[in-house]
Design brief:
Blueprint: E1 12-14, E2 17-18, H1 31-41, E3 51-54, E4 57-60, E5 65-66, E6 82-85, H2 98-110, E7 115-120, H3 123-130, E8 139-144, H4 152-158, E9 164-169, E10 186-189, H5 202-215, E11 219-221, H6 229-232, E12 235-236, E13 239-240
Parallel strand pairs: 1-6, 6-7, 7-8, 8-9, 9-10, 10-11
Antiparallel strand pairs: 2-5, 3-4, 12-13
Helix pairs in contact: 3-4
Bound molecules: iron/sulfur cluster.
Amino acid sequence: MGDKSSIEWTEATWNPVAGCTVTSPGCTNCYAMRLARRLEAMGQPKYAGTTRISGDRPKWNGVIRLDEGALSLPKSWKTGRAIFVNSMSDLFHEKVPLNFIRRVFDTMWETPQHTYQILTKRAERLEELSENLDWPSNAWMGVSVENADYAYRIEHLRRTGAPVKFLSLEPLLGPLEDLNLTEIDWVIAGGESGPGARPMNATWLRSIRDRCEAANVPFHFKQWGGVNKKKSGRTLDGRIWDQFPAPAAV
Ligand code: SF4
C-alpha cells in the first residue's frame, strides 16, 4: 500500500505500520480491517496474521507490523502530495515504539514537498509522546471523534505541538453539541459506508457545519455514507463542502 487514494480529503496513503486493535465504537466497521484480510488473501505478507475471523467478519487481532522498508517511500515521490499516514493502522497504537514514530517524523522532515495527515484514536498517547517528537510544519495531526463520549480526544490534541490540528468526525455516530473548535484548523465529517453502515442524522452534521462557519474553521463533508455511498453523495444543503486549511495555517 502506498499510492493513490480514493479518500476525498487526501491524495495518497503511506503505511509504515500495519495492523491495529479496535478501541471504540467508530472502529466497529473499520474498513482497514476488512482490507487487511483481503490483502492477506492476495498474498501480501505485510498483512499476514493481522486479522482473525470473529463471527463471520475479519477483526484485527492486535498484531502490529512495522514496515522498515516503507519508511523512505515518500522520498521517491518527487511531486508534493497530501499523504494520509497509516490508513491501515494507528501510528499512536501502544505497540508502535516511540523510536519508530520518530523515524516516521524524520521522513516527514526530509520530504517538505509533501503534506502529511496523521489520524489517531489514541489521543492520550499522542499527547504523552508529543513533547518527545520534533514536529515538522508539514504534519497535520488529527483525532477521530465519533460521538460526544470521545470528544475528550480533542483536549489531548490541543495540548500537542502539532502545527496543524484537525478533527475527523467520522463515522459520525451521535451529536456533538458542545464541540469546541478552539485551536482547531480543520474539520472533516461524514457518515459510515459499507455493509452494516450506521445512519448519520443530518441535524448532527448541520450543527457541526454551523459551528465551523461561526468559528471560521474550514469544513470538509466527506459523504452521507450508507450501503451505497455513491448514490447518497456528499451534498449538504445544495453544495459540496470541500474546504481545507488555509496555507497560512500550514
Ligand atoms: S483505530 Fe482506526 S485502524 Fe484502528 S481499528 Fe479503529 S478505525 Fe481501524
